[in-house]
Specification:
The structure holds two protein chains of two kinds. Chain A is of the alpha/beta class. Helix content of chain A is 25%, strand content 27%. In chain A, strands 3-2-1-4-7-8-9 form a seven-stranded mixed sheet, with helices on both faces. In chain A, helix 1 packs parallel to helix 4. The two termini of chain A are 26 Å apart. Chain B is α/β, with parallel strands linked by helices. Chain B folds into two domains: 202 residues, Dipeptide transport protein (Rossmann fold); 44 residues, no CATH class. A seven-stranded mixed sheet of chain B has the order 3-2-1-4-7-8-9, with helices on both faces. In chain B, strands 6-5-10-12-11 form a five-stranded antiparallel sheet. In chain B, a hairpin with a 2-residue loop joins strand 8 and strand 9. In chain B, helix 1 packs parallel to helix 4. Classes of the chains: A alpha/beta, B alpha/beta. Chains A and B meet through strand 3 of A and helix 1, strand 9 and helix 4 of B. The structure holds zinc ion (2 copies). The site of one zinc ion has 5 residues of chain A, from loops.
Chain lengths: 264, 263
């Protein structure tokens, strides 16, 4: 079967500072963060193969400036590298039996959330989808749910405790693997990586076996996606999207039947 | 038997950005990319040796600033290091039973071609006897036009566009796709393990099929044309023998020896 893995960097174990994730240059801190995330991906991949020997796995590196060390990434899987320039649904198709979201952080504004943000950590205050606050996880899970006649279920989420809670609130059946306990914007208590890897392997296998019973987040169209910027930031970048309307100085909204045509 | 491998970098699996390919400094991203293409070269060499245990393999690193990590290259392979330090035909002679072209990218101007280019960033296009060509066709024609007899290119690996171009030139040639080109610096990469397994199997198959894969022979004399972007200097091209300026952006050479040209 086909499986899709979406990765971000901020939710990985032993990652808790912006200077590990925001930098474009491959500093020692960034290289370390990439290695930590890549090890988590490889563990989840191993779990998928445990459950499905014929697994066809595609990973998309969803962290803007890249969160995966491609030299260490499992060589059995296909890859769409890095973030910029690619459009939704980011290689995900209705044929994928499930989506796994690794390295996930909580949405912008989450109290004590480590590296909490929504898309742009510098500029975005909040996203709302049909009135409900969503982070990257919620937005992508809903988008996956719109694909095809059934939608693709989000079957496993790993990240800090708050990202896992965010996932469970939206998808009660989802499998989660916490990597750390958030203690503040740049502070966390990290679990033992070895425990995280073995959980990831086990839970990925369990999630793959249960995938048919995990409902996609399938919301009915139309979708109202609203983005609100932090003070001092405008919405110009969003206005080039079809149907985007400016609500006020720092709020923009789009109403659509096709979420993949938005900035989601 | 003697087998010749030439490698470029831009068509390798998990390579998709210029920063992975260009520049003189061996920073992390370039080291990464070198490892990817070197693994592909090793898989190919292993396949050749599977089919011909006494294989005498020579590899030329054809990427300008170099793309092979010599410390990781199969020690059974003879090695001609990178770039333009040796003149064409880059160690290839008519004694070779066949050539393997790895890491191939699409030619300049290919829509959505990942790292598409022809030789340098200021090249709009090259033409050989009126047909638009990229590096792949240039190298295949060079192998097919050796003065002591043609050498067939048996296997081409690279992005989907590069493989399609190889089939257009020689329908019988074997190909291994490394990735699906999506944009100038974007691709969906196939699993390296799959690519390596296919390279090994196809390289062995290519050795066995050697007599059934014709060389790419372009009849002499050769008319080679290069068109550059506005404002580029034609000087380097005009230093080649039998070369004339057609207009501000275009040089043309007519020659009987393809390895006298710039392709
Ligand atoms: Zn991120
Ligand atoms: Zn090159």
């Amino acid at each position: 079967m086909k499986w899709y893995i979406l990765t971000d960097l901020e939710g990985a174990c032993r990652v808790n500072r912006w200077d590990q994730t925001r930098v474009d240059e491959l500093t020692p801190d960034k290289l370390y963060a990439r290695r930590m995330l890549t090890a988590e991906i490889n563990a989840a991949v191993q779990g998928l193969y445990d459950a499905d020997h014929e697994a066809e796995i595609l990973v998309w590196d969803g962290h803007g400036n890249g969160g995966i060390d491609n030299t260490l990434l499992d060589e059995r899987i296909a890859l769409i590298a890095r973030g910029s320039g690619i459009r939704p649904p980011y290689g995900l198709t209705a044929e994928h039996a499930g989506m796994l979201v690794l390295g996930q952080h909580p949405m912008a504004g989450t109290p004590r959330g480590t590296l909490a943000h929504t898309y742009s950590s510098r500029t975005v205050e909040e996203y709302r989808l049909n009135g409900q606050p969503v982070g990257e996880l919620g937005a992508r899970a809903v988008m996956a749910g719109t694909l095809g006649t059934r939608g693709v279920p989000t079957i496993l989420v790993s990240g800090d405790d708050l990202a896992c809670a965010e996932a469970r609130a939206l998808i009660p059946e989802v499998y989660v693997v916490p990597t750390k306990t958030s203690l503040g914007e740049e502070l966390a208590e990290h679990r033992a990586p070895a425990a995280v890897y073995s959980d990831l392997r086990e839970q990925a296998a369990a999630a793959a076996r249960a995938a048919a019973n995990i409902p996609p987040v399938r919301w009915a169209p139309p979708y109202t996606l609203r983005a609100r910027m932090k003070e001092g930031f405008g919405v110009e970048g969003y206005l080039r999207y079809d149907g985007a309307t400016q609500i006020d100085e720092r709020t923009v909204e789009v109403v659509t039947d096709d979420l993949t045509k938005t900035w989601i | 038997m003697k087998w010749y491998i030439m490698t470029d970098l831009e068509g390798a699996c998990r390579v998709e950005r210029w920063v992975q390919c260009d520049g003189s400094e061996l920073h992390y991203e370039r080291l990464e990319a070198r490892r990817f293409i070197t693994a592909e070269a090793n898989a190919t060499a292993a396949g050749i040796i599977d089919a011909d245990p006494d294989a005498d393999i020579v590899l030329w690193d054809g990427h300008g600033p170099g793309c092979i990590d010599p410390s990781l290259l199969d020690p059974r392979v003879s090695f001609i290091p990178h770039g333009w330090r040796i003149p064409a035909p880059f160690g290839l002679t008519s004694e070779f039973a066949g050539a393997f072209v790895l890491g191939t990218h699409s030619r300049a101007g290919t829509p959505n071609g990942c790292l598409a280019h022809t030789m340098a960033g200021n090249v709009i296009g090259y033409w050989l006897n009126g047909r638009e060509i990229g590096e792949l066709a240039g190298r295949m024609a060079m192998a097919g036009g050796l003065p002591d007899g043609p050498v067939p290119v048996l296997l081409v690996s690279g992005c989907n566009f590069a493989c399609a171009e190889a089939h257009e030139l020689v329908p019988e040639v074997l190909t291994v796709e490394t990735k699906l080109s999506l944009a100038p610096e974007r691709a969906q990469h196939r699993p390296p393990a799959t690519v390596h397994a296919e390279l090994r199997a196809q390289a062995a198959a290519a050795v066995h099929a050697r007599d059934d894969i014709p060389p790419f022979v372009v009849p002499a004399p050769y008319t080679v044309r290069a068109k550059l972007t506005e404002g580029s200097s034609l000087d380097w091209y005009l230093r080649h023998p039998h070369t004339t300026r057609i207009d501000e952006q275009t040089a043309e050479q007519v020659t009987a020896n393809l390895y006298e040209t710039w392709i």
